[in-house]
Design goal:
15 helices; Arc Repressor Mutant, subunit A; alpha/beta; Nucleotidyltransferase, domain 5
């Protein structure tokens, strides 16, 4: 008879195999045994059970000549068709969701516009109805059911303390986020968890992509600035859950001629409202010809896409404005990486001009990072697939769920 203690050890070792293959992608039983410091016989038994359950699959052999000691080693990998993860990303004006494999590959997505700023108790059911409708669409398209999804992770914009620290009223959308999860849970037979959207992206970056560095700073730019710290492949929250909030850095000293009575934060200077104030000081057709023409001279009606359009078309004064912003951001990144002794920084830009802005920022960091042997890269997550952040959360929660003794790893349906 197998005791609970033996069951737990078996389950924990199976989860270690999943995590290892998540990172390494393809490995032989011999390689897995070596990495996990388990006997080859144990790995054979553990992986055989997982193959029979459909969690793992054999995917060929190690390339090269067959050795004299035995047959060529067979490679194992996670079966991407075993179960799926559902990721949802909720931004201020857009909601996107998609099904993602256990290896982090997106297979189908949907999105819709929704103004979160106007979210209320009355409009909440409408949001839930739209989310449920899109979920059913992606499941039906792939001929799947709720039971084919292990977990749903939601990355949502917004942090209460940002408003509290500035003495501002907390938007209804933040008051209603727990109610949102409650209503969604009633409509959708999938376990779900809500996380800040930047942290969700950092979790996905850490778990779905192989990195040289296991510790890094993850920064999301647009329409504000948020960041998360990953240490040894684990998200670091801090004592009050605010670790890594680079957007709260005070940058007032960079604006000595500002008429603002209150401090200026890093997150503020990326906002559209702040940019409008900056542009208003010299808002003429001569200073910003492309942007002025694009908006028909109506600064109040300017959108962030108008700004990106002018940047892409090399509006000189606007580029100079953004060079200043990237210089300020670079100085804060240098502070953070020095303080935390991090080698790597990943950037996620939610706008369409990610490479352009990345190049501006990289130029500001180039000298310092070369001297300290640090790197900055664009995130491996495409900016039109932010829902993969939610899938990253779902992956972590799935692992936690599978590790529970009450859950049978072999039969999840």
């Amino acid at each position: 008879m197998i005791t609970n203690s033996k069951k737990r050890v078996k389950r924990e070792n199976q989860l270690r195999i999943i995590k290892l293959l998540q990172c390494k992608k393809k490995m032989s039983r011999k390689q897995i045994a070596s990495m996990l410091q388990l006997t080859p016989a144990s790995i054979t038994q553990l992986t055989s059970d997982m193959i029979e359950a459909g969690i793992l699959q054999e995917v060929g052999t190690i390339e090269g000549r067959k050795t004299t000691s035995g047959p060529r080693e067979i490679l194992l990998n996670i079966n991407e068709n075993y179960k799926y993860l559902l990721g949802i990303d909720i931004e201020i004006d857009n909601v996107s969701l998609g099904l993602v494999t256990l290896a982090g590959r997106s297979i189908i997505k949907r999105s819709f516009k929704f103004n979160l700023k106007s979210l209320s108790q009355d409009s909440l059911p409408t949001l839930v109805k739209k989310v449920k409708s899109r979920i059913l669409q992606v499941l039906n398209k792939k001929q799947l059911e709720f039971r084919d999804v292990l977990y749903c992770g939601i990355g949502m914009v917004g942090r209460e303390y940002y408003y509290q620290s500035r003495g501002l009223a907390i938007p209804p959308m933040l008051h209603l986020k727990n109610e949102l999860i409650k209503l969604l849970s009633k409509e959708i037979a999938i376990p779900m968890y809500l996380e800040n959207n930047v942290r969700a992206l950092a979790i996905a970056e850490s778990n779905f992509h192989q990195h040289e560095a296991t510790s890094f700073l993850f920064i999301k730019v647009g329409p504000g600035i948020g960041s998360a710290i990953v240490l040894d492949n684990q998200l670091y929250y801090g004592e009050r859950g605010r670790a890594g909030e680079i957007g709260s850095s005070i940058v007032t000293s960079f604006y000595p001629n500002s008429n603002q009575k209150e401090d200026i934060f890093l997150e503020d200077i990326i906002s559209l409202d702040f940019i409008k104030v900056e542009l208003s000081q010299k808002w003429t057709k001569q200073q910003y010809p492309l942007l002025y023409a694009k908006t028909a001279g109506k600064l109040d009606e300017m959108t962030i896409n108008d700004v990106y359009y002018a940047l892409a078309n090399k509006e000189a004064n606007l580029i100079a404005l953004y060079q200043t912003k990237m210089h300020i951001l670079a100085s804060r990144i240098i502070d953070y990486t020095d303080l935390l002794d991090l080698k790597m920084v990943y950037l996620f830009f939610s706008g369409t001009k990610s490479k352009f802005l990345f190049n501006l920022l990289n130029k500001e960091l180039e000298t310092s990072f070369k001297r300290t042997n640090r790197e900055i890269r664009l995130s491996n997550i495409d900016n039109n697939q932010a829902f993969i952040g939610g899938a990253g959360v779902a992956y972590i929660k799935s692992i936690e769920m599978l590790a529970n003794l009450d859950i049978d790893l072999i039969d999840l349906s």
